[in-house]
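for the writeup, i need someone to sanity check this before i put it in the appendix. the sequnce is what the collaborator sent (i think, or maybe the updated version? ugh). structure was predicted straight from it, no edits. if anything looks off just tell me and ill rerun, i have time this weekend
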Amino acid sequence: MKRSMKRPVASPIESAPNGWRQLSETQAIAMAAGAGLAAWIEPAVGVVAAAAALTVACMMRRPWIVVCAVIVLAGARSHSEAAAYRPLSSGPFAGTMSLITDPEARTFGWVAEGRMLDGAHEGARVRLTVPWSAGDLGAAVSGSRLDVTGSIRELEASDFFRSRHLRGGVSAAEVSVVAGPRWWRAPSEFIRGRVVAGSAGIPEGLQPLYVGLVIGDDRDQSLGQQARFRVAGMSHLLAVSGQNVAFVLAVLAPVLGRLSPRVRWLLTTAMLVVFAVATRLEPSVIRATVSAGIAVTAVVSGRRSAGVRTLALAVSGLLLVDPFLIRSVGFVLSVGASFGIVMLGPAMAGRIGGPRLIAEAMAITVAAQVAVAPVLIATFGPVSVASVPANVAAGWAAGFVMMWGASVGLLIGLAPPAWQPILSAPVAVVVGWIDAVARFAVRAPLPSVGAVGCLAAIAAVVLLWSVGGLTFRGRLIGRFVQRVGLVIGVGALMLAAEGASAGRAAEVIAGGGTFFGGTPSVLVVDASPTTELPEAVLARRVGRADIVVLTSGDRWSAMVAAAIRDVVGVGTVLAPPGHRVPGAVTVRDDLVVERAGTGGVPLLIAVDGDGRLGVTSP
């Protein structure tokens, strides 16, 4: 009997009309990685050379030439953007400005980002600072236009400011809102307003978490909440990412599935744009939106595209448009997490036993955490081992909240106020669970892992897992080698982990703090209102501070004191005369604190000549 020999049909993934071959996954990844490297180092390559290379690539129809051409073009774009990025010089300013971000209330006033609409610096993006006495921006939102009088100041050079294209700062002396957002932003503002209104029935302390989970607005989150989620490795849940975009598309799927492909593509693209504007065009959501747009376009055009190829094409395209995105931590983390989920998630899910739903949830969480761990450690320091189980426990809940906010939550805002707490009860319970997981994770007796531990663990697991899988595949000894790799990897994590250090006699803590162990324990605070000190206190497992000494008593100190109370147990708070810290005890005369235990030397707390508190050993 003759076997029928059929000519293999070209896959739509690998072929395209007109003699083209689509980029393979390897080529797409190489293109995205090369574009990122070129955008980072900003090579001085001319735009003409890049255009010529791209023209040759199109004429020859060879994927690898396209890859090289895109990399060259990314380098040229980065170089031209860097040359055009010139900091503004100090001087007076009077003109109109359009807000890019929503104003954020601080102790001294308002902070926002804006774009100059007239004058010599038209089009420049700046960081706007508005004292309380200069004007009220409570009703202003992204897209509002302001009349501003003040002065331009220089900003310190940093990758963050460059990634935001901020060329300077403006300190306002007088500000007035002259117009709201333009008409085309109305759908986005409506959705954003309905989400915020739908949170009215949720308990006050959980409302900022709900809004952050749904649309990524973290302005009303306390310093303690932000520090807790960062130390627990769960802060990505409160930032809009590809997960939010996926849930929005899932909510719309029943309606869009009944439409023709072209109409479906048009409405899906429109909804992606509306959602991106509603979430203020953060780098992570831009990446997710573009990836989703590419995937939808591929389906409508009759082609299929693997997730890693879609991600690589989106990254390459975005870096060509805005090379400074490579300096955005949010963008890099979003790309890294997506890459880990696409490349490592399926393989991990297949090797994890148990129910499929739990196995997939664990695989996605672990894959994302492994992929972003190097960036997190390099940027924010050691990462807690508790972050993996914490994300597994909270991941499903975050998905529920996102789905709720994109559907039921939009309707709750239209309900009578008396009914809103009842209608919001299910989502309030789930948000409370997420908050409880974060609180438990930061107090769990698990160590944190730095760069050495991370590299050692990854190297051990990858090496021995590969050896066991390739050399001894299908044999008992191969499985044994793989198990040994996992054990060695976990052992490397534990040996290189950074545990609690609260028992030391005296330790300087990042963010402007000093902790004295013993009984009673003393925490000296000399910090500005940022999450750095609360994060450092949590990372060092300082479970309780019997005495908190505030060197200053201004409103900033009050914010930091509230954050410390929120993240650890606090006994007595001491502040200098004339302080503005609710519940603090005023220190007017010298105070000696007798201490026992580790490093139990007495401490002298006294007011210095500037009216500040100082702590010394007498």
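Residues 1-20, 468-474, 495-504 have pLDDT under 50 and may be disordered. The chain has 21 helices and 18 strands.
thx in advance!!
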